[in-house]
Design goal:
The chain is an all-alpha fold. The protein has a domain of about 130 residues. Helices cover about 60% and strands about 0% of the residues. It contains eight helices and no strands. Helix 1 runs antiparallel to helix 2, helix 1 runs parallel beside helix 7 and helix 2 packs parallel to helix 6.
Length: about 190
């Protein structure tokens, strides 16, 4: 899936519990961070030899950070940094696996290549998890999932008073939420 979709899925997951801003950020980032192993693609963008970046991307994406050991490291870091340690760590670990599930569902390349995940790498590098029914990255289900998660994120921002914008700036977040509420009205309190 697209990193934006992973981000929105992580944000939505971070809202299943009453977490503070820092802990919501941790859960959201844990849901996106596995894609750090795909940064080799940047080398092809900035390099005079684009083949190198494509090679790095092809060799290491869905390998280095898409495995259970990376998930455990992300979970340990989440636990160490969080205020609500156990809840945040659990949601980070779950978000990491939601990321993997998303990639398993929708990682097919344009040429029909199935992107498998080396779930037990590096202990068992030949153990691959894949699915022959993967849809392409730009297929309609990905667009629909991203749109649904975006709408959910906007609803949560309107209802709860904070949004993913708050990860970057609390002031910008207040402005964003105020704009939503001025446009769509203020939520009524639930009793």
């Amino acid at each position: 899936m697209n990193p934006v979709t992973h981000f929105l899925a992580g944000w939505s997951l971070a809202n299943v519990s009453a977490l503070e801003r820092k802990d919501r950020t941790i859960v959201t980032l844990a849901s996106v961070i596995p894609d750090v192993d795909g940064l080799g693609i940047l080398k092809s963008i900035i390099s005079k030899n684009p083949e190198t970046g494509l090679y790095l991307y092809g060799q290491y994406h869905h390998v280095l950070a898409h495995n259970v050991f990376s998930g455990l490291i992300i979970t340990a870091v989440a636990y160490a940094l969080a205020k609500k340690k156990w809840v945040t760590a659990f949601l980070a670990f779950f978000g990491f696996h939601v990321h993997l599930l998303g990639d398993l569902l929708s990682g097919r390349g344009r040429d029909g290549t199935i992107w498998s995940i080396s779930y037990l790498y590096p202990a068992y590098p030949d153990f691959l998890v894949g699915w022959s029914g993967q849809w392409e990255l730009n297929a309609w289900p990905n667009v629909a999932i991203t749109a649904a998660l975006l709408l959910l994120s906007l609803y949560l921002a309107w209802r709860r008073g904070y949004s993913p914008v708050g990860i970057i700036s609390a002031n910008a977040d207040r402005t964003f939420v105020d704009t939503l509420r001025k446009r769509f009205g203020y939520p009524t309190s639930r009793n």
